[in-house]
Write a structure and sequence with these properties.
Chain lengths: 132, 379
């Protein structure tokens, strides 16, 4: 990425993620994990090449994901357009190898595949441009 | 079900094409030969074996007016076969390729044919009367990877191509001496051979199976990411739509009417897509089954085994009866369907019958006469 412009953009995105993070913390404290996840997934920056932005957003999404207890309810409340992005984050979670994260991600993966079908998984695998 | 006839011809079928009267079918049984079978009284008998290629025959097309078969193969060659005295006589076409040829299609007027290849080029071949041979002109520019499918626009000049670089492009293939400049249609500026009219960047992954609608107004192609793309008003300001669907990707599509498309692919069951009155395309149903209730997952036994293993890793796994219910996927085909060919008179706006062939070696003929009501008014 060209020096000046790209750098500033990345900083701006990270700043946005920080604000998102505080919002999510407060939502979690109010026992609204579904809202938290929605906020986390919204405005995911798939088009940035910057690894820091992606990692920063992943931490935020991870926090919200681990707080989810009622998976069915969460999927009911989530819009269809977020299924693909959620699936990408699930795979990122599974790749961490961390036991509790993987457990949670597997549980959500099972339910999400039932709803969204194999096409959703396909879209994650084939999309090498917009990775999370 | 809409299936009229199913027959297993070989282990696996790469591609197939029908004779002008639909009584004979030519296909490649996944080797270097082309077999021609004729159907008589419910029996299929093999009439000819065309053996000239050295490697897999990747594309076959049978012209309906001039009754010529064109075959292309991974051996970088193409032959045009004519029926002389009951035997098929090949004429070599020098394509000037240094990689495999992947697909072929006769143009609507049958005076040209287009070949897509792994050499990132498209060959447009036309017959030169003076020298009594087929000449090939190459479109070398633009493609960044193999050209997987080609489709001719009804005006015999525009050609749509899909490639493994994910893009769908439309080119002009105007050849002086072969095509006549139609002063009504299109602007003269686009009449240069090999000129790219439009490039569609809708897909992130490999693109396959492109087709034009009967009027030539709409273009449909599929991406390997389980998406199908529809483009209306192809030109300077196209209207593109991406439709994501639930299941495994498609490999080929067919317009059965101006507003309805059938897609076939890895799910072994043809899918119907239609545009509603506002022009929005969406998935309607599978041809074979009734409308499914969304909560039932219908994975085959192979998948359900894999899924139980996958989810068994997690400590608290609920017995997933839904995925255990191995509803067998293929009513007709057992494996990926990779080709769909219309069986109606060329140029007619509606396709009532079509055939599909796949990796399971079967060719199935489908008739939509009985399904007209179910398909609705778009058909």
């Amino acid at each position: 990425m060209a020096g000046g412009g790209g750098f500033v953009e990345a900083e701006a995105i990270i700043a946005r993620i920080e604000t998102k993070s505080t919002k999510i913390e407060s939502l979690l404290k109010q026992y609204k994990p579904v809202e938290a996840l929605k906020t986390a997934l919204e405005g995911s920056p798939p088009k940035t090449l910057d690894e820091r932005c992606k990692s920063a957003n992943w931490i935020v999404v991870h926090r919200a994901l681990m707080a989810i207890k009622d998976i069915e309810g969460m999927l009911n409340a989530l819009d269809v357009e977020y299924y693909d992005i959620l699936m990408k984050y699930l795979y990122r979670g599974l790749s961490t190898g961390d036991r509790p994260t993987c457990d949670q991600c597997l549980k959500i993966h099972e339910k999400l595949t039932e709803r969204a079908g194999l096409g959703c998984i396909l879209r994650c695998l084939t999309d090498t441009l917009n990775t999370v | 079900m809409a299936v009229v006839d199913v027959h297993r011809f070989a282990e696996s079928i790469t591609c197939h094409a029908w004779s002008p009267d639909h009584s004979m079918v030519a296909f490649c049984p996944n080797n270097n030969e082309v077999h021609i079978y004729k159907s008589s009284q419910d029996q299929w008998e093999r009439l000819h074996v065309l053996e000239k290629h050295d490697q897999i025959v990747s594309g076959i097309d049978w012209s309906s007016k001039s009754n010529k078969i064109v075959t292309v193969s991974h051996d970088r060659n193409s032959y045009v076969w004519s029926l002389e005295g009951g035997e098929w006589v090949p004429t070599l076409v020098i394509l000037r390729l240094n990689r495999a040829a992947l697909c072929v299609q006769w143009s609507p007027k049958e005076n040209k044919f287009a070949v897509g290849s792994g050499a990132k080029t498209v060959c447009i071949c036309y017959y030169e009367q003076e020298n009594n041979w087929w000449v090939s002109k190459l479109i070398r520019k633009r493609h960044e990877s193999s050209v997987t499918n080609v489709a001719w626009h009804p005006n015999n000049i525009l050609l749509a191509t899909t490639s493994t670089d994910g893009k769908c492009r439309v080119f002009s293939t105007f050849i002086k001496g072969v095509d006549t400049k139609d002063s009504k249609a299109g602007s003269p500026a686009e009449s240069k051979f090999g000129e790219q009219i439009i490039q569609l960047d809708l897909s992130y992954s490999w693109a396959f199976g492109v087709k034009w609608s009967p009027s030539g107004n709409t273009l449909a192609y599929v991406g390997h990411s389980s998406m199908i793309y529809f483009v209306d008003d192809v030109g300077p300001s196209p209207l593109a739509q991406s439709v994501a669907f639930r299941d495994l990707p498609l490999r080929d599509v067919l317009f059965i009417s101006e507003k309805m498309v059938i897609g076939v692919g890895y799910d072994s069951n043809p899918m119907v897509f239609a545009a509603d009155d506002t022009g929005i395309w969406s998935f309607i149903r599978y041809i074979g089954e009734k409308k499914e209730v969304s909560s039932g997952s219908s994975y085959s036994s192979q998948f359900s085994e894999a899924f139980t293993k996958f989810y068994g890793q997690s400590k608290a796994t609920t017995a997933n009866e839904a995925s255990e219910s191995s509803k067998s996927r293929g009513g007709v085909h057992d494996n990926c369907i990779n080709s769909i060919v219309p069986l109606s008179k060329a140029g007619s706006p509606k396709v009532m019958r079509f055939s599909t062939s796949g990796l399971d070696g079967k060719i199935a003929i489908w008739d939509l006469e009985s399904m007209q009501e179910e398909l609705g008014h778009q058909f």
